[in-house]
Amino acid sequence: MAILSTTAASTVSTAISAPPRVWLRVVATEIAIILVGVGAYLAVAVGAADRADAATAHARTLVAVESALGLDVEVDLATWWSGDPTRVLIADAYYVTAHFAVPIVLFGLLVLFRPAAYPRYRTAFVTASLLGVTVSWLWPTAPPRLVEGFADAPIISGLENPYAAFPSMHVGWAVWAALAVGALTANVWLRALAWLHAVITGVDVLVTGHHWVLDVVGGALTALAALAIARALHPAREPVR
Questions:
Q1: Which residues have a Cβ under 8 Å from the Cβ of 90 and sit 6 or more positions away?
Q2: What is the pLDDT of residue 105?
């Protein structure tokens, strides 16, 4: 956490006017943090196949809870959505592309226009991702596409952990994005658009069979908890321009 709370704060915020060696240090720090996150994810994903029975049992537990609460809508949603090939293509494309494209764009905007806020939101992003990986390791959960047989749901890559449904980090990253946009601008329409992305992502992961409703809730709470941790590490309040 020392790297997250001190290194970025002392480098990114001054990097725009700094010499190339400072930029190199910033880039090296960010790459190191990314590699740690990717390594943690892959370490969990490698052994995922051996935990299929536990993951399915945990999914059944979520289904039971959702059924009791009247939230078990995944099968009906996915069945209805799959009836239109165009809808399926749109949802699949959004699932695969927006998950990565939106954070990349926002990180760039934070560095360029809100460098003082960058450490907080980068820390929040990394913390949310590591929390998600940790939970999926401690409590692997199968998604509806495996439990209910949604064989045509999109797969990001062969390295994807198939039993990391809870919490949904697609939703976690989307909620983080909405919070980051709040730090970038006071424009109510842009903020509303960011939250619309989070809502669309929540619906998208359901209709594609990748997540349960409780996964969506868990992903949102993970992002909020991560930002609370980041605020504790970076207590300075940065006014929105």
A1: none
A2: 93
